[in-house]
């Protein structure tokens, strides 16, 4: 009788999810740390809500309400209530404020960073789990709080190392478009939402794609059909003219929008808010190279009620083949005055901004803005003698005390395998103490980066190579200084 084969599951990553590893995670951590410093300095308090919320706290305001699962990963609790992984940090914040309303100082200013999950169709660079970093002010209806959010986002851009001109915060007010829709008789809720979602795709689909979504609808490359807003030709032209009213000074944009809203009081309120935001931004030193008015920014989420904003990277980087990398938007936000009221029945004004950490960090990596302290130099202590592990671990501890990332090799294999391991880890140096070195009180330091450069460019001047050897042996009391010299040389070579 043959033995039954044991079940062995196939090692496979779930579709739409990614494994994030060392360097990626370090850049993400650097970004979150930079943003957190800014938020702390501006008086915001940290908050961490749970990964799960009850589904009814999220679903109504998701962008794809027509989907059966409403865009969330949900499960039924043992008490029969449906819970869902949080879709963003904003809806959980609204629940938290509603639950603790009497105990919170208002305005309540908080920031939060963590994973969010969206049950949406995955694609290139579009994952179902990613990290967001949010800042919000709850309890202020003053447009100055929106202006502060815009200035806050711009300050984070500076904090991560971007120069003015490398980014811009694009600003609009949803009520201006609402006013335009009122003027063309297309303000019913369903049509309004379809128009908002269409306008939000302008940068990705272009004018023709948006025009199709404003009309009968559009079929994408996969064959999926999205029903349109069914505006007539005049209505489509009016909305497109609205989206085109960008460029120039903030005052110029307001002037171009005024005739499009006509007599709509809603539209006039949006323009008034933009005027005040402009005044506040000017007063606190955020000029139009850092924050510009752009009517095409409408944001797709249904809970935005007033000013909306997006952070766009303008800095240029290139792929290995020389083609430019288009970064686009790395964050966004706006005013959402109705979200807390779902729980309390009481209107509670709120505004906030969110960075997509993974996307933003990838852009910073491409631009070389990973932060000085994002990753300390790595040094590997080679296990030359199998019975000396304690000594090697002690040396690694000494390196860490001197400010390095360090490890003693604990795997199996000869010297060649260990050096290959060190190269693949990106170590700047390998530390070698064999029996001869130990008996003589010596340590050998191998400069891995220099060794690689010399191997790649054998035309280097012989004298230069002799003056900067890829390997040196030093006294036991001088080995840390020698590693620091190697690391400094590597940094200088860039």
Class per helix and strand makeup: alpha+beta
Helix content: 25-40%
Radius of gyration: 28 Å
Mean model confidence by pLDDT: 87
The CATH class of the largest domain is identified as Alpha Beta
**Approximately how much beta-strand content do the residues carry?**
15-25%
The low-pLDDT segments are: 60-68
Strand order of the largest sheet: 1-5-6-15-14-11-7-10
Report the CATH architecture of the largest domain.
2-Layer Sandwich
Largest β sheet strand count, sense and barrel closure: 8 strands, mixed
The CATH homologous superfamily of the largest domain is termed Bira Bifunctional Protein, Domain 2
The 3D shape can be described as: elongated
**Individual helix count:** 17
The structural domain count equals 2
Question: Can you offer a commentary on this structure?
Answer:
- The longest helix is centred in the N-terminal third of the chain and has 20 residues, at 22-41.
- The protein has 494 residues and is α+β, with helices and mostly antiparallel strands.
- The chain has helices spanning 22-41, 90-99, 143-159, 174-183, 189-199, 202-214, 233-243, 250-261, 265-283, 341-344, 357-366, 389-401, 415-425, 435-440, 448-456, 462-467, 479-493, and strands at 45-46, 52-54, 74-76, 82-85, 108-117, 129-138, 167-173, 217-219, 225-227, 291-293, 307-313, 317-318, 324-325, 328-335, 350-356, 378-381, 405-408, 429-432, 442-447, 471-475.
- The chain has an eight-stranded mixed sheet. It has a five-stranded mixed sheet with strand order 17-16-18-19-20, with helices on both faces.
- The N and C termini lie far apart (65 Å).
- Helix 3 packs across helix 9.
- 40% of the residues lie in helices and 20% in strands.
- It is elongated, with a radius of gyration of 28 Å.
- Its EC number is 6.1.1.21.
- It comes from Maricaulis virginensis.
């Amino acid at each position: 009788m043959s033995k039954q084969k044991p079940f062995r599951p196939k090692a496979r990553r779930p579709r739409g999810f990614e494994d994030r590893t060392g360097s990626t995670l370090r850049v993400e951590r650097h970004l979150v740390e930079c943003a957190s410093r800014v938020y702390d300095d501006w008086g915001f308090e940290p908050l961490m809500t749970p990964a799960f919320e009850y589904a009814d706290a999220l679903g109504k305001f998701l962008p794809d309400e027509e989907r059966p699962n409403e865009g969330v990963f949900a499960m039924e609790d043992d008490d029969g209530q449906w819970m869902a992984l949080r879709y963003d940090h904003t809806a959980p914040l609204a629940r938290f404020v509603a639950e603790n309303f009497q105990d919170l100082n208002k305005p309540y200013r908080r920031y939060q960073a963590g994973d969010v999950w969206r049950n949406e169709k995955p694609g290139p660079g579009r994952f179902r789990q990613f990290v967001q970093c949010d800042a919000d002010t709850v309890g202020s209806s003053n447009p100055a709080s929106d202006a502060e959010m815009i200035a806050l986002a711009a300050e984070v851009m500076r904090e991560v190392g971007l120069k003015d001109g490398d980014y811009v915060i694009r600003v609009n007010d949803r009520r201006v478009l609402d006013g335009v829709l009122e003027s063309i008789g297309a303000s019913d809720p369903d049509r309004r939402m379809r128009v908002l979602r269409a306008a939000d795709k302008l940068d990705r689909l272009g004018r023709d794609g948006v025009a199709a979504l404003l009309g009968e609808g559009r079929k994408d490359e996969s064959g999926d059909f999205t029903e349109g807003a069914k505006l007539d030709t005049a209505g489509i032209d009016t909305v497109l003219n609205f989206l085109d009213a960008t460029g120039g000074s903030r005052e110029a944009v307001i002037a171009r929008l005024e005739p499009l809203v006509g007599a709509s009081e809603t539209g006039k309120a949006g323009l008034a808010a933009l005027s005040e935001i402009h005044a506040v931004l000017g007063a606190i030193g955020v000029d139009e190279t850092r924050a510009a008015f752009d009517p095409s920014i409408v944001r797709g989420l249904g809970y935005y009620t007033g000013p909306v904003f997006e952070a766009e990277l303008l800095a240029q980087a290139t792929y290995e083949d020389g083609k430019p990398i288009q970064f686009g938007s790395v964050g966004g936000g706006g005013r959402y005055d109705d979200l807390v009221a779902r729980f309390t029945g009481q209107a509670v004004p709120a505004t906030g901004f969110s960075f997509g950490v993974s996307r933003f960090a990838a852009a910073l990596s491409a631009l070389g803005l990973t932060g000085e302290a994002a990753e300390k130099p790595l040094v590997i202590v080679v296990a030359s003698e199998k019975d000396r592990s304690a000594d090697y671990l002690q040396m690694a501890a000494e390196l860490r005390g001197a400010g390095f990332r360090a490890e003693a090799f604990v795997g199996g294999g000869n010297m060649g395998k260990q050096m290959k391991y060190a190269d693949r880890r990106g170590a700047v140096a390998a530390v070698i103490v064999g029996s001869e070195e130990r008996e003589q009180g010596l340590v050998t330091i191998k400069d891995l980066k220099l060794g690689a450069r010399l191997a790649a460019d054998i035309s280097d001047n012989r004298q230069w190579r002799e003056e900067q050897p890829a390997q040196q042996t030093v006294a036991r009391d001088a080995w840390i200084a020698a590693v620091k010299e190697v690391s400094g040389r590597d940094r200088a070579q860039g």
